[in-house]
Each structure stands twice: as C-alpha cells, then as structure tokens.
Specification:
The protein has 297 residues and is mostly helical. The chain has three domains: 118 residues, Four Helix Bundle (Hemerythrin (Met), subunit A); 61 residues, no CATH class; 86 residues, Arc Repressor Mutant, subunit A (Orthogonal Bundle), CATH 1.10.10. The protein is built from 13 helices and two strands. Strands 1-2 form a two-stranded antiparallel ribbon. α10 crosses α13. It is elongated and about 90 Å long.
Length: 297
C-alpha cells in the first residue's frame, strides 16, 4: 500500500536529491578504474565514489515513477540497490560504459519495487504483465482510448499486438488496474440505512464446515457401498461397469471398443451392462436401511 512521506523525510529527500544532482559524472577512464578496483580488490572507497557519482541517474529514474503513489525516498533506495547490483556484475573488460550498463539495473529494481508495492494484491507475475502494467496507459492514450473506461475488443487487440502479449493478458491486467485496494473495514450503508463494514456485506458462498464434512462422509460411504456391491458381479460385468460407468469421462470406452476387447458383439456388451446395472441396484439397496438415501444429492 502506498504511504506518504512525513515532512522531515521529504526535507531529507530534497537535500539528497540536490546533492546528487550537483555531483559530477565520471570520465570514462576514471569510471573504468573505479570499477576495476571494486571488482578485483573490493575497494570500498572506489565503490562509494562510483555510487555517489551515479546517484543522479537513480534520482532521475525514480522521479519518473513517482506517479504510482509510492514514496520517492523508497523509489530512490530501490534504485540504489539496482545501482549496487550493476557495480557487482559489471565487467570492466567489456567495451561499455558503466553508466550505460547501470541504467538497466536501476530501472529494473525500481519497477520490481513498484510492482510489489503498488497494491496489496500482487499485480504482475509475468513479463507480459509487467510490460502491460508500465505501458498500458501510455499505449491507450496514443491510440486515442480514454483511460478509466473499459477498452473495446478492437483496442485490446491493438494493445496486445503493440506490446507483444496475448489479448487474455490485456484483459487480465485491465481488470487488475481498474480499481484500487479497498479495506474490508471501510464503512458502507446497509439496505436498512444502518452502517456496517464492507467485509460484513460480503457473502461466503462456500458450504459451511459442517455441511462440507457431511458431504465428504456421504461420498466415502457411497464409495464403500459401491465397492462392496461390485463384489456381487461377475468378472466380465465388473469389467464392463468399470470401463463404461466408473472411468473418467475422457477415458470411457464405447460399446464397440469394449466388445472388441472382450471378444463379443456391441449388442452383447449393452446387454451385459444393463444386467450388471440391475444387479448393482439390488446389491446396493440390500445394504442400506433407506434406499432413497443412495440417490440423495
């Protein structure tokens, strides 16, 4: 959840930002020398100078994400974590400036922080979600679509194509970003005019624990009775019932297929099945005091 900085924190942030923006960037040779000293010998002074010189890049990146409602100080701290990761991974032997290399790490660290803290519900879980979170509003605006209103199917298709994601990803992230967090303790007016919390108005449509336990008990009892009743059938009858009635829907076999397997005609299999079902019904009803209980929902 987003929080606001207090006055003292805001003042400290301003002082840090001013200092960072006044610090001069390093020449290529100095930058390379500091990076080598840190990587090869763990020179802390070299790291401090390197981080201090490029804190202005962190500040610049952090300010671009301030409209997500998170404290600027926190964004700057996360950006510095990315900057330090860049210092730890930078290879001076490659022909690339440290500043160029560090920009990606700074931005990635800030983006991850925003995704983790923008909402109490995790917002982005994939690369596609991350791309949509940070680019959806911009792309919609460029397409002339008004943010805050549901997208049309045509707009969703255009967004998906431009960002290289699926339409399903667009629909999912549109829903996640359409509303902010809401406390379950937020007051709402009841139908009778009384005030109560929003959480109290949410109905739990699941079965209560007692009903759930009874349902499991009944299913177990029926399964036990069925196993016992199957014992009254012949081996061929059990095979037919198991293949035709007890198998999963996608594993059930046709009369013709089962006839080929058993070496009999399709009609003969149908007769065996009908006879076995009749015997099962009798066997089950013998085992319970009230047969109607077998067919209760």
């Amino acid at each position: 959840m987003a929080r606001m900085d207090d006055t003292a924190t805001q003042a400290a942030n301003i002082r840090f930002i001013r200092k960072a923006m006044k610090t001069k960037l390093l020449a290529r040779e100095r930058e390379l020398d500091l990076a080598k000293r840190w990587r090869e010998s763990g020179d802390q002074a070299a790291l401090d100078e390197l981080i201090g010189a490029y804190s202005r890049m962190v500040v610049s990146a952090a300010l671009k994400f301030r409209h997500y409602g998170l404290p600027v100080g926190d964004l700057i701290q996360e950006g510095h974590i990315g900057l330090m990761q860049a210092a730890a991974r930078f290879e001076p032997s490659r022909d690339v400036r440290f500043a160029t290399y560090a920009q990606w790490w700074i931005r990635a660290a800030i983006q991850d922080f925003v995704l983790r803290n923008w909402s109490i519900v995790r917002t982005g879980t994939t690369a596609a979600h991350k791309s949509l979170f940070f680019n959806l509003r911009r792309v919609r605006a460029r397409l002339g679509d008004r943010n805050g209103e549901p997208m049309t199917d045509d707009t969703r298709a255009k967004v998906a194509q431009e960002l290289g994601v699926t339409i399903g990803d667009v629909i999912e992230m549109e829903g996640r970003m359409s509303g902010g967090d809401r406390s379950l303790d937020a007051p709402v007016a009841g139908d009778d005019g009384s005030a109560r919390s929003w959480g109290e108005s949410l109905a739990d449509e699941r079965a209560d624990p007692e009903a759930d336990a009874m349902s499991w008990h009944d299913r177990d009892a029926r399964a036990r009775l069925l196993r016992e009743a199957m014992g009254d059938l012949s081996p061929r009858e059990r095979a037919v019932i198991a293949a035709r009635r007890l198998a999963d829907e996608d594993e059930s076999v046709t009369l013709e297929t089962l006839g080929t397997r058993l070496g009999v005609s399709k009609e003969r299999v149908r007769q065996i099945e009908a006879r076995a079902l009749g015997k099962l019904k009798v066997a089950l009803e013998k085992r319970v005091a009230n047969p109607a209980d077998l067919y209760a929902a």
